[in-house]
Inverse folding.
């Protein structure tokens, strides 16, 4: 009872009238905890996937959200720093989804910018772990940002985009999938 009272007291002190909705991310192309489909696997570096960016749909962004960013990252890559597979930033605040194949078809929301992946190009770069490695984890995250735009060019590498995104994050939601070969 004391915990509930403290939480209610904190909410009333800060003027909160209702609990904030939790930000959520869903996809018809990615199932949390499951292996990634061939459609989202890279085509190159020994991988033979279709390299189609997945559909992503989000909801529950907090009040004050001025833009969104999406990032895809493999923390298991044997690089010492992981591997950036996709970054999209400056997605307008009135957008709540990215269609499947939007990266390759150049159908991202107006104003959105794709940063450079660790493959060395801008746009989506699917999963392609080294042959024989245990399956890698691929984290797709949408970030609600407190700024309209990040001051970055399309040549910005994933780590730089990540720095600016995290410095301006209000909330985030993720889906983690796996892939091995």
């Amino acid at each position: 009872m004391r915990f509930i009272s403290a939480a209610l007291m904190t909410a009333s002190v800060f003027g909160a009238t209702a609990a904030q909705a939790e930000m959520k991310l869903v996809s018809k192309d990615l199932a949390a905890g499951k292996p990634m489909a061939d459609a989202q696997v890279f085509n190159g570096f020994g991988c033979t996937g279709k390299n189609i960016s997945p559909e992503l749909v989000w909801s529950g962004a907090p009040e004050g959200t001025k833009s969104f960013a999406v990032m895809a990252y493999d923390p298991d890559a044997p690089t010492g720093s992981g591997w950036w597979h996709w970054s999209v930033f400056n997605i307008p605040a009135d957008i709540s989804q990215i269609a499947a194949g939007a990266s390759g078809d150049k159908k991202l929301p107006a104003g959105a910018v794709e940063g450079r992946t660790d493959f060395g190009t801008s746009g989506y770069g699917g999963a392609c772990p080294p042959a024989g490695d245990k399956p890698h984890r691929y984290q797709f995250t949408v970030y609600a940002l407190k700024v309209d735009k990040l001051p970055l060019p399309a040549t910005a590498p994933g780590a730089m985009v990540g720095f600016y995104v995290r410095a301006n994050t209000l909330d985030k939601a993720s889906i983690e999938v796996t892939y091995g070969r």
